[in-house]
Amino acid sequence: MADPDVKRLPIFQVDAFTDKPFAGNPAAVCLLEDVDLTDEHQQKIAAEMNLSETAYLRKLNSDDDFSSSSKFGLRWFTPTNEVALCGHATLASAATLFYMMKNPSPQLTFQTLSGDLFARREGDFISLDLPENKTQPLDREPYSQLLKALVGMTPIRDFQYCRSVGGDLLVRLTDDATRQTLESLRPDTVAMLAAHTQDIIRGVIVTVKGSVENGCVDNQGVMYDFISRYFAPWNGIAEDPVTGSAHTVLASYWAKELGKTEFYARQCSARGGDLKVRLREDGRVDVAGKATVVLQGMIRI
């Protein structure tokens, strides 16, 4: 006999920035239907799912429908806290609506803590319309212990900070660094946490300029403009597999460095993912990727 006090909500697990299951960046997507979950419940579900992000889609009006409406509320929670912007969980949310709810809208709008975000169909890709997040140079001396825990003795060319995305450090390795250099980094996340306890860092981006010579090419030999990894132990994420929001920072940085606005990029985690990124003149960033749904069910609360 069904327990009337138990609520059941549709929940999906989506691998974002990949077209293959068990690659890219997994996110949970929960449809709130007509249930108004407390922040505490949303945090507990995110901890239970134990993915880098759990997204919550909510209707904005009582007569809205996940299968036909085009505008929704969206929030993101890590296993430990709510965040202001998450690209891959936004992509996962759009994929859930497009692919699982059969929503026919050509574009979806999400009301978020970072303002209105948009997701468009572009062939086999879903393109996210996100805000640009600019960096500023930063004195690296106060962060010397953090950088040692992050990259060891690997030489650094540039060190910058982006406040608007919630506090991301950007560490650019020297141009003689290879893809293997980046992929072989083994940050000591415990030491990173101990080295910096102030509440101004969301995570750290480590990036390398792409070239054929340093191995920054895909399986077809096409060169990546830049590659990166992303570490966020302050948010309970030792390493995020593929980070859409970090590419709003990377697009702004590399546009100045490379003198171009369209990029082919890869995040070089163990799961990995490819992204198409474009910095627009209106201060927005298009971040496009594929997504595949790997799990569908109901969560009991």
UniProtKB/TrEMBL annotation:
Domain of life: Eukaryota
Entry keyword set: Isomerase
Gene Ontology CC terms, in alphabetical order: cytoplasm
Catalytic site positions: 53
Stored PANTHER family: PHENAZINE BIOSYNTHESIS PROTEIN, PHENAZINE BIOSYNTHESIS-LIKE DOMAIN-CONTAINING PROTEIN
Family: Belongs to the PhzF family.
Listed name of the protein: PBLD protein
Organism (species): Branchiostoma lanceolatum (Common lancelet)
